[in-house]
Amino acid sequence: MAFGITKEQLKLWKRKIDQGDVAFITHYWLDDRFPGAKTVTKVGCKDIEQLARWGARYGLKKEWIHIRKDGYSHYDLLGDKQRMILRAEGKLDQLECLT
Known about the structure:
- With 99 residues, the chain is of the alpha+beta class.
- It is 35% helix and 19% strand.
- It has helices at 7-18, 48-56, 79-88, 93-96; strands at residues 2-3, 23-29, 39-44, 74-77.
- A four-stranded antiparallel β-sheet has the order 1-2-3-4.
- It comes from Siminovitchia thermophila.
């Protein structure tokens, strides 16, 4: 279950993806499969190859991309990898606003 973001934040994330950017959005998230995770960062891009190249810089595999028919395909980042990538991308504020 996702929560902790506004409709405007989601619209902005989608707009950036629609423009061809690699876009980030972080929100609270609960999933029994990941009991230690309280947040997830979705990193999306409409160009799957561009997203895969971006992910490869951080050791993410192309097959980990959640392919969506609506065009908002993305990686899900959790835990230590999430924090490391957000720090490297200068987007750690996405996590800090949720704490």
